[in-house]
Amino acid sequence: MSDEDKDSKTEEPTEKKLRDAAEKGNVPSSQEASLFASTLAFYIYLVFFVPDGVKRLGETLEDILDRPEQWRMNNAADMISLGLHLAKEIAAMLLPAAILFILFGLAQSFVQNLPQFVLDRITPKFERISPVGGFKRIYSANGMVNFGKSLFKVVVVAIIMVMVLKADYYRLLDALVTDPHAMMFTGYEILKKMVIVVLFSTGILTVADYFWTNYKWHSDQRMSKQEIKDEYKQSQGDPVVKARQRSIARDRARRRMIDAVPRATLVITNPTHYAVALRYVKEESDAPIVVAKGQDLIALRIREIATERGIPIFEDVPLARSMFAQVSVDSVIPSVFYKAVAELIHKVYAARQNKRRVN
Asked: What is the pLDDT of residue 41?
C-alpha cells in the first residue's frame, strides 16, 4: 500500500468491512500470546508434574540398575522389552506436558478470536514469496515492531535473567561438587526462576503486543471516502440502476393497467387530466374495483380505449380527482364513493336494458 493510499484512508471502517475481513481470516492476533501460553503451560508442568514424574522415572532407573537380574539381555526381544518399558515411563512423564501445551495453545486462540477455516489464508499467493514484498514487510512499521519485540526478548530478558540468577551462581557451583540429588534440586529451583522471569517478561510483551496488534489491524481496515461510497452503493444498490428498475416496474404496471381497461364497466374523467376506470360485476365483488387510473397522457389513452370498446365515459370532476388520489389500482373503492358510483352504474345498466329493448 502506497503512502498516498494510506493518506486517503481517513474514515473509520464500517461494520461490513470488519465483518468481511473476519470472514477472510483477517483478524487481530498477537503472536506473543502463543509464546506466553506455552511458557505458562511449561511452568505449570514444571511445578506440578515434573517432581513426581522425575521421581517415578528415577525409581524405574534405580530398579533397573540395582536389580539387573530381573531384566534379561539375551536377545533383541529382551532389549526391545526394556526399551518399551523405559519409553512407557518417559511417555507417562511427558504426556501431561503435551496436553497442557495443546490446551493452552487452543485457549489463547479462543480468547483472541474464534477459530475458523478460511481457504483464502492457505491459497498460494505470489506476494508471500516475493523478495520485494518481503523487503517491504521487514522495513514496514509492523516489521520494526517485530524487531523491537525480538530485541526485547533477547536483550531485556537476558539482562533480567542475569540479575535474578546472579545470587544462585555460587549455589550452583557448590551443587556440582556435592550430592547429585542436591545438584538436581538446585538446578530445578534455578530452572523455575528462569521460567518465572521468562513468563513475567512475555506477559508484559503479550499485553503490549495485543494492544498494538489490535490498533494496527484497525488502522489497516480504515477506508477512504470513495470506498465508503462504493460500499453503500453495493449494499443499497446503485441509484442509477435502482431508478432504471423502478422505471421498468412502472412501465410494466402501466401496461398491465392499460390492458385491463377493456374489462372496465365505466370510466370517470374530469374530463381531460384524470381518468379512473371501474369494473363492477356482482358475481365477482360486492363493490366496484379500480382496474386502471391515469393522468394526462395515460388518462387520454384510457379514454381512447374506452371509446374504442364502447365503455361508457362519465365526466365528474370532483369524483374523478378524489378517486384518483385516494384509491389504488386493483382496490375496491371506499364506501364514501358508493352512492356517487352507484348512480353511474345504474345509468350504465339502464342504458344496456334500453339498448336490448330497441334491438
From this structure: 92
